[in-house]
Amino acid sequence: LQELSIRENEVLGLLAQGLLYKEIGDRLGIAVGTVKQHIHRIYEKLHVQNRTEAVNRYFGR
To answer: pTM to 2 decimals?
Structure first.
């Protein structure tokens, strides 16, 4: 698996807390489109298809 960037780690942490894309964007001061780009890259790097798989893979569950 590829290593996630600092920002991708931040996004994934907020995703794991159940925040919506808009809430993640507001929290990090970035646009929703940018959040979606980060999440797309996270999914690619972790070889997953959705939020649950990403969180489980990242936290080793």
So the answer is: 0.89
